[in-house]
Amino acid sequence: MRILFITSSRVGDAILTTGLLKYLVDRYSDAKFTIACGPVAQGLFDHVPRLEKVIVLRKGFAMAHWRHLLKSTMIRSWHTVVDMRSSATSWFLPTLYRRIYTRKDKNAHRVDDMRHTLSLDTAPNPHIWLDSTNRTFADSLLIDKGQRPLLVVGPTANWAAKIWPAAYFSELISRLTAEDGCLAGGSVVVVGGPGEETIAAPILNMIPAERRIDLVGPIPFLDVAAVLERASLYVGNDSGLMHLSAAVGAPTLGLFGPTREYNYRPWGALCGFVRTDETHAELSTHPDFRPDPTNSLMLGLSVEKVISASTELLELSKRLD
User: Which residue ranges form the domains of the chain, and what is each CATH number?
Assistant: First the structure.
């Protein structure tokens, strides 16, 4: 039995589909899986059980990525094709069952909306598969940090408008890890992707070297996930790393402004969000609500508000521990 799972090219969106993938992995214990995704998301799926192949969809001239997918999959008969991209390609594939995502409710969280693709009554939580090599990476990175609390911050994003200012992140870190803070004396991990080093640099520079861990750059997602799994708290902008933190079960606080928290807040029992005083609708009329903004649209989210939400989430984590 073979199942083809077509997921997003973006990391965050791909992570949100992994709950459905896990449902299929658990339900069909003899199935082999082929996953189609964008090149950035490829590393998320290295340890999916019974994985046969990952087909990387690189955009090219005249829909080259979809032609590549069709060429790679049409010669095989599938038990099930699940298409979370709602592409035309999946209609041409020979399969016993075809499940194509269609948005039901534009105001619903994406995880909850996508459950209808498999006719599920409840939305399955996103899931990331790790192995011993990923956890060994985390062990070696954290071995000299002892029993300190572990604060992870994600100060980057793929759109400048949704990046909370570096000065705000720096103040948040100082106050949370101060002697009277809720993560007193904690080590601080800063995470970000390749090309985001400049955004993270001011924050890394203010953290004492003995408590600082730099995970900004071309570091495999699953190694980062193994570190996130150990976090006492993650605080970050709306990004793929925020969803990665939530998927491994870390207490995760998402920061929102020009994006819609009702669609994309971190999903899970130990997740929360705070947003700017302005609503998404209000910010969507701002001159900097455009692909290449001059300024961040996150100035309306105060450090006080984030500290209050962080404290509440840590208290919830302790109660559920």
Answer: 2-118 (3.40.50.2000), 144-320 (3.40.50.2000)
